[in-house]
Each structure stands twice: as structure tokens, then as C-alpha cells.
Model the fold of this input.
Amino acid sequence: MWKFKTPGIPDDEFERAEKVPITKEEVRVIQISKARLKPGQIVYDIGCGSGSISIEAALQIESSGKVLAIDYDETAIELTKRNIEKFGLTNISVIHGNAKEKILELEEADTIFIGGTGGDTKEIVELCENKLKTNGRIVIGIILIETLYSVLQVLEKLQFESVDITQVTISKSRKTTTGTMMLARNPVTIISATRI
Ligand SMILES: C[S@@+](CC[C@H](N)C(=O)[O-])C[C@H]1O[C@@H](n2cnc3c(N)ncnc32)[C@H](O)[C@@H]1O
Done:
């Protein structure tokens, strides 16, 4: 059982798999902060990957809330399940399948995280607009510039306000034989907005 409620679980606390990318600790902290989670909320984690966002969100919404973690990749689903068990959480349901179809079956959400769309960005963001409660929050983590462009285009046409775009490039230290150098990771853009 993880003993802290504050976000920012170190990456190496999670079970990992080579072909399943994880949202790194510092980026995850920003995403959780942008979501403004409260106890009792219903949260989707679309493209849950390793489940790291689901786990951080589950800790914030406490046992009265529920995370619905969706991924179409079987390895990601197994990994998310292993992490849920490792962190001893009971408020996450794991859903295997394409978010395009699975979202339709879900109850309304207070908050939606999108970590992957597999190229169906427009369709998935539109479905999320339909499922988000008024004043609900959407938080999208973006690596590809094509995805960034699609999200901006689609958000403009939908019922969202207070669109915030934040781009971060995290550098982490590495010891060398002569000192400590900083190594930059790829930039990540985080788009968040509120459903009108
Ligand atoms: C960058 S990873 C997400 C990382 C995750 N936030 C974490 O911390 O581990 C993106 C994930 O989205 C999933 N994905 C992409 N498109 C999807 C879709 N249409 N439906 C369900 N899962 C999808 C991929 O299989 C992948 O596991």
C-alpha cells in the first residue's frame, strides 16, 4: 500500500513493461494538478498504459470515487492490473478495448485523462465531450505534433472553456565520471479544459 496521498509516485515504484510507455513522474504530477480531482469523482483514464495516472487519480478521489482505466493493448491491461494490485487499490476498473467503442458504455465522468488515442483523436475527444459532466475537466497528454494539432482543432468546435496549453521539457540528472549532467527528455504538451 502506497503511504502518501500527494501526487508524484516515483516511476520505479511501478511495474513496467518494455513496450508500454509510462507518463513520467513529473509530467504525471502536472496532469493530476490540472485535473483538480476531488474525493468521490468518476474518472476515465483513456490509454491507461502502465496505469500510473489511474493510480495517482485513484488516490486523489479516494475509495468513494472510481477510475475507469481503458486500453486496447493487452500488455498494458495486464500491467495496469499488476500495478493496481501492487498499490492495493480497489477503486479502479480496468476495461480492455478501443476507447472509441468502450466510452459509449460508461457512466458520465467528472474528469477524463487522455494518454493515447491511436490516431482517432477527433472522435475520442468528441465522445469525451458527450460523457463529461458540466464543469468536468479534460486533461490530454500529447507527444506527437499531429495529435496536438488535431486536439486544438477539435476543442475549438466543442463545448469547452478555459483551454490551457502547457508544454514541459523535463531534464534529469545523470552522473558522469567528472560530475553531473542534465539529460533532456522529449517535450510533452498538456492540454486541459473545462466542459461548459
Ligand atoms: C503513452 S501511453 C499512456 C501512458 C500512461 N498514461 C501511463 O502512465 O502509463 C498510451 C496508451 O494509449 C493506448 N491507446 C492508444 N489509443 C487507444 C485507443 N483508441 N483505445 C484504447 N487505448 C488506446 C496505447 O495502447 C498505450 O498503452
Remarks:
- The first helix runs from residue 25 to 35.
- The chain has a mean pLDDT of 97.
